[in-house]
Design a protein that fits this description.
Keywords: Coiled coil, DNA-binding
Helix content: 55-70%
Number of domains: 2
Protein name: MerR family transcriptional regulator
Pfam family, one: MerR_1
Structural class: mainly alpha
Organism: Streptomyces niveus
Number of strands: 2
Order of helices and strands: HHEEHHHHHHHHHHH
Shape: elongated
InterPro entries: DNA-bd_dom_put_sf (IPR009061), MerR-type_HTH_dom (IPR000551), MerR_fam (IPR047057)
Amino acid sequence: MRIGEIAALVGVTSRAVRHYHHLGLLPEPERLSNGYRVYSVRDAVLLARIRRLSELGLSLDEVRDVLADDAGRELAEVLAELDEDLARQEEQIRARRRRLAELTAGTLPPEGPVSPTLARLLRAMPETDSVVAAKDRELLTLLDVAGGGDEAIYDALHSLIESPDVLALYERLDELADAATDDPRVGPLATDLVVLFSDAVLDAMPEQDGPPLEGIGDAILADLAPAQAEVGRRVMEALVEKQRQRAEKKRDGEGSG
């Protein structure tokens, strides 16, 4: 193969091939009597590997180190690794196309691209003008993007958001927007909210090593009105306590067995 042919085969420019020669990444091939370079299949494989490593974000110095470690390997082994790289690329492309298809079809929620499990949950949430409901959606989206969401929790939350009482509870929360933390409606509302959380949600919740509102919990409550935040605090504490009791009961059952 001539330089133009190997460049076209691998998908780079002839200038890039010459640059790799200059840097010592790609050894100079044999030349014909007329001075033209003649490249072999092994040269093409090496050039393809240089391209692949560069596309993965490695600097040319890092590419040189990787190629040095690969010296002496059989051609079949190098080809197999390149095939694995291409297979991974194909799967990544398919996954991205699936996400684009969802977006084009309008099946994603207004919050934008989120995990498929959360997208199903958001679509199942009832339509409402509730301010607190809107905050819940924003929070779920934030946790999902930040990697703090969990598919098991999303699936378990369906029983909560599909409850016929959920809209009335959101309305009661909205009514506390200007209330004080000692408002008599706070306690009953917190109790009614706790009832909605099924055992499946409790099982999906991560166990708490410290106070239930440490870290992000504090930030969540700070975004609510005082009385609403007090309801949230009581709900979280009650759920953590229920979770602890369930874990103790489970351990006691295992111990007696």
